[in-house]
Amino acid sequence: MQLKDKVILVTASTRGIGLAIVKKCAQEGARVYMAARSMERAQEIANTLDGVKCVYNDATKPESFSSMVEDVARDAGHIDVLINNFGTSNPGKDLDFVNTDPQVFLDTVNLNLRSVFMASQTAVKHMAGHGGSIINISSVGGQVPDISQVAYGTSKAAINYLTKLIAVQEAHHKIRCNAVLPGMTATEAVEKHLSNDFRNLFLRHIPLGRMGLPEEIAEAVCYFASDASAYTTGQILTVSGGFGLGTPVYGDLAKKTIRR
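The structure corresponding to this sequence follows.
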């Protein structure tokens, strides 16, 4: 029960990594608030978990990133942990540098960055008196350039830097800020949007040879949310099975050169 009685807010929390984080935090004794646009879906999930409530958040309405934090602070009396899990991209339009429409680029970067900036800015006002932890769910795509999704990768790289800025500038308030960078994770979105051929190609470049599980990302998040990481801030933790560690030809040569 390493999160016992901590008040935790999780964005984009009704499926995938966000839902795994909610379940893990609740299991560890936290009072969890699920931020979601579909309150009906969120409430159905919350009804099955102990200590879980719902607050409204619609990514298309910027003010709701601030209002959801205010709602949690008002209901719980304070907030201990903010987990910025929201992030979006349109793979059909978020292409390479030359072929991505400028408005698509600007809209994606704006949406992903403001979700973290506005929620965190509001949260630190409520954490300043007692400290707290902000955890940004970024992506390995913010560290390793890809051949597409120029807007998504740029926004995640910016979130990594923003994480360090918050860590430095809010440390005097005993507020920590860290980021978790998932690699390819076995979520409904990956199943829906990525072909088997692409997944298999990607897996060749993951030394551990498999996709991550949402629950494994949640474990890393739980560490940053807990007092076990009380002396850890400004860290960018990649949870990707080793993706990006090898040489560019790793995927082509690994099976030929690794011997037992």
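Residues 102-127 form the longest helix (26 residues).
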